[in-house]
Here is the input.
Amino acid sequence: MGLHGVFHRHPWIDRVLAENDLADEDVFSLAVARAEAYGWSSTHLGRGPLDGCRWGHNDAGEDWTEDNRVRQLAWLQVAVEERLHGQRLPLLPVATVLGDVLHHMGTYTLTGLHTVAPLQLSSDEGSVYLSQAADWVAAAGPGPSADCAITIAARESAGLSNRAHDVNVLILERSFGRLDIHPGKPAAPAEGLAPSLVGEVQTEGMRNAASIHCSLPAWSLETAIWATEVTATAVRDAGVTEPVLLTISRNGDHSQPNA
Here is the structure.
């Protein structure tokens, strides 16, 4: 998963890190520490598997160039635990770790995100959660709705080319009225995403299968990852049982930093 946007370091962060012998802190080290703090993952060897482990840490990185251009600000590659015991894919936990890391180091404006979702590991236990999550995002903020573009990429073996209508219907059902699709309008180019996405090895052979112009109740990391999880569930329920690449990006105003 990667979070995209515009980043500004805290003006005091380099001094504080240096004073505490933490000058080498980056997304890799911070994501490891944060995931372990939540109990979602651990890199400690020799103590056995972590109870409730959601993933194994593979790699992480960042682009914190401060030029007011959209960058891939933070990314995390994980090996999702194959025995999830009825739990959903850890999309929100991974996004939470990355968001925490960015808030720790500075301020950022989220413009988009991407994730490679291993749908073959996804469970059927998400309907109750998605209903609750829809109520949560309904009160996500007082502002106007956010105009967004969602894309779905998959290999030919996924058979998505003839299922676009089915996926749209399922997205509307799984979002419980909190996400609107605008079928008469083409999805705008993904201006909220950096030019290249981390995960090229995992996405080799994938081609864009659907582009969806939609609106969310508000724009934030929470609503973006909710829409991503809704889309992943819809694609799985349409019969896809292999990895897919999902992106969501906001169209238009990119000026508001994430709270």
Notes: The first helix runs from residue 13 to 19. Helices lie at 13-19, 27-38, 91-105, 127-138, 164-174, 221-237. DSSP finds six helices and eight strands in the chain.
